[in-house]
Input
Amino acid sequence: MDFFLDSAETQEISKFHELGIIDGVTTNPSLIYKSKKPFRELVTDICEITKGPVSVEAISNSNEKMVEEGFELAKIASNVVVKLPMTWEGIKACKILSKNKIPVNVTLCFSSTQAILAAKAGATYVSPFIGRLDDSNIDGTDLIREIRTIYTNYGFTTKILAASIRTKNHITRSAMAGADIATIPPNLFHGLANHHLTDKGLETFNADWEKSGQKIL
Ligand code: G3P
Output
């Protein structure tokens, strides 16, 4: 499973990138707004930090404008992926941009039928929003399982990018349901390596080693 960082904070992105475990980045207009940085400069910086795919969202409502914006965004860097909303206009724009070899991430996906449309329109990624479905008392990872089955049944190559990930459990369950990628917010990423039993076990091993009086170096 690939891990993307769901962030527009260059410091965070650099930090995780240096660990060598980030395969890409996803942004959205809310994250860009929070970063308080000029948009183009920010996207250029992110695309330099990571060579992996960087999703950047178009903001117009009409397919014509989305296509224009998509071409413009794609000029910023070769690893830009144009994020388009799961609307009919977004689907039309996805078809055009994908035909022009510009990768598209269809975002705000909340149903399997939407995911089929995204795949038929040539999307490189589809982003089911797990956490927001859970907020509505619907199991978001069930949606991933459905999409995985459908895509496998019909040979669709669109990658399933589990988004709106809020907990470690969301990552585990998305992986088990067959998501290709999880996009993870930095605060959750920080805690991924932690487990209280790891800390406890390490404490005991270190104490016993100390008592043994032995050395490795
Ligand atoms: O990748 C989409 C994500 O940023 C949305 O997350 O937590 O606002 O639902 P959330």
Notes: Strands lie at 2-6, 24-26, 54-57, 80-85, 104-109, 125-128, 159-162, 181-184. The chain has a mean pLDDT of 97. The two ends are 36 Å apart (CA to CA).
